[in-house]
Design goal:
The complex is a heterodimer of chains A (274) and B (105).
Chain A (H helix, E strand, L loop, with lengths): L1 H9 L5 H21 L4 H24 L4 H18 L8 H19 L4 H32 L11 H30 L3 H5 L2 H27 L7 H39 L1
Helix pairs in contact in A: 1-2, 2-3, 4-5, 4-10, 5-6, 6-7, 7-9, 9-10
Chain B lengths: L7 H11 L3 E2 H11 L8 H13 L3 E4 L8 E4 L1 H25 L5
Antiparallel strand pairs in B: 1-3, 2-3
The chains are: A mainly alpha (274), B mainly alpha (105).
Amino acid sequence: MRAERVYAALLHLYPRRFRQRYGTEALQTFAELSAALHTRRVRFWLRVLTDLARSIVREHIDEWTCGDLSLAIRWVAGCVLGLLISRLGVMPLPAWARVFFLGAALGAGQGWALKQQVRVASLWSLTIGVAFAAPAALESAATAVFTLLKYQPIDVYHDDRRLILMLDFVGIAATCLPVAIAQALLIGRSQGDTARWLRTKDAARLIGWTTVAMPAAVLGARALGQVLPFPGYSTTLWWISSAVIRPSAIGTILGLLTVRPIAMVVGRERESAV
Amino acid sequence: MAAMTFSNIELHVLLVLADGPRHGYGIMQAAETLSNGVVTLGPGTLYSLIKRFERDGLVRECAPDAERRRCYCLTRKGRTHALAEVDRLAALVRVGKRRLLPSES
């Protein structure tokens, strides 16, 4: 009975849905196995614990990717690839064009990951690019208007790290919100009834996660860079860091954070097609 | 029909269920016997497999046994895919024997 109590507690390490569906049965099977191997306790616990370690990891990955691991790998790779490509064209362009290029490249990577047709993937890429560029273009326009009106916005200098972090987060999230809405509109379009789909939990989840994922990815990558400083300053290392490591880290974090809502939507599409 | 490939453990579970409905512990025991002790499943791996098989439509839940334990059985789709995998392995065994064993001539 004590072994069963221990196993019942360990079952809480599985994702909730798995536990609710199979938890009671797993516990019953465990009890039967325990009774059958009561003379070989060490062997029994070794078998159970290795089984737990393997299946808990597998179930959490399965839960996060909605059972579509290949989509998840393609999605993360698409995000990384998009951000890496976007680094190639950033140097001489104005801010709004740089972010357009970033968004378009990210969209192209995502379109490839979702195995979309060329027309849909191009539309996806273009929409993400425009959505990304919109806040930067607005900021440029506002600056031009301020200059015209000779208005000097108040620039408050502060050194509160938490405040700076929060402002960075909010700033990037504001840039990502149009991207999230654009993604939701594109998926809504593929579902037929866009307005109806936008009112679903899936759409809210997709918009919420995408808005939060990009600032989390950028700030996460920045924190990673601070934890792992380069030994001494070197132009080559700086280039590798800014052109390869940083976009790869941001792409990986972004991909991992946004794959679940995408996998849920794509999985449902596949089920309805069947 | 898109081909599915199965791992050693997955195929053993499908072959066990081909005999008829079984409950969780029954599947574990039968898989161990069928593989001469090579395939030893734990409850976590077993229900993880059953979950995926149910999702892919290869296995479904059927009437509980006399002790009210949940039982699972193979669907027609599951049987077809398991048979295709066994055929694939049989072809591989034939090729392997032809290449590895000395020819009779």
